[in-house]
Each structure stands twice: as C-alpha cells, then as structure tokens.
Amino acid sequence: MGVSSDRFLRMVDSLAEVERAKARDYLSFSVRGKRFGYHWPRTSTVGLKQTLSEQIALVAERPDVFEEQFTMGGFGWVVVHLPKIGATELNELLYEAWRLSAPEELAEEHQYAG
C-alpha cells in the first residue's frame, strides 16, 4: 500500500484539461479554472475536494489516512496521506474531486474507467 508522489502526479495527468499551478511549497490542480486538488511533496500529502458527507465519512472511518482540511462552498476538502492509501482508492477520490469541479459536459465525456 502507499502511493508515491510521482504516481499521484501521473494520475492527475490522466485527467482531462488539468491546469497546474506551482507555489513555493505545493502544486494546485484545476479544471477550467475550478480548483480540485493540492499536492505537498514535502509531507507526501494531497488535498482533494469531496462532498461534505464523503469528507465526514472518510475522516471518521480512517483518521490515520484522512484529515479534514476545510469546508467551502458546500464542499469538504480532505488531506490524504499518500503512504497510507492504495492506488485504486486514491484514483477514485481524485477522479471524484476532478468531477466535482469539471463542467458537466466535460465530466460526461470523461467517465471514470477504474
């Protein structure tokens, strides 16, 4: 178990129309101008947009893997510890974060393939 930062970035690259922005300590990811994720290489963590109910469930079920980051605009963001999550689950959460920010027609064109 565990996902490297390089593997996470390859997962991000597999999504449609992702825009990256680099700050001093992190990368951020957007689709058509709407943010859906962050990556902090130094701490091997990522922040992903989720529904509020998913945020609550993830943190409650496995607080060693997930932390509440913040809530905003009806969404709950979670911090994911890359060394403690499997690739399949991370890929599903990443796609969901992307889908929550992507325009409906783009999300329909790029359904999750698993």
From TrEMBL:
InterPro entries the record matches: YjbR-like_sf (IPR038056), YjbR/MT2646/Rv2570-like (IPR058532)
Lineage: superkingdom: Bacteria
Pfam family for this entry, one: YjbR
Gene3D superfamilies, alphabetized: 3.90.1150.30
Name of protein: YjbR protein
Organism expressing this protein natively: Amycolatopsis minnesotensis
